[in-house]
Amino acid sequence: MSGLSRAARFVWLLPRNVCIGILIVYRRIISPLYGDVCRYYPSCSAYTLQAIQQHGVLKGCFLGARRILRCHPWAAGGIDDVPTRAVQRYRVTRFGFVSTMGQGKG
User: Fold this and answer.
1) One-character DSSP codes across the chain
2) Average pLDDT for residues 25-47, to the nearest whole number?
3) pTM, two decimal places
């Protein structure tokens, strides 16, 4: 994506950032109503958020759905981190959204 303009990179990351925005709103408004019920750390919503930030919408939603299916009352639980990418192409802003690593001006 090195040849893409800033606008094209924004459009490319837009679906990922929309999903991130939805999850941020869920985690701030709805999740506190349920309390601490997840058997895993990080919680299922935090796991899905990190998965989408690192892997994109399709793989991140797949990883999140797989995690939610594993989270049930009979699960052992424990620490379950998102698998990391070998190469990080994007950075996460302080608000949780994804942006480019600053690859030139476009």
Assistant:
1) -TTS-HHHHHHHHHHHHHHHHHHHHIIIIIHHHH-S--SEES-HHHHHHHHHHHH-HHHHHHHHHHHHHH-STT---EE-PPPPPSS--EEE-TTS-EEE---S--
2) 90
3) 0.85
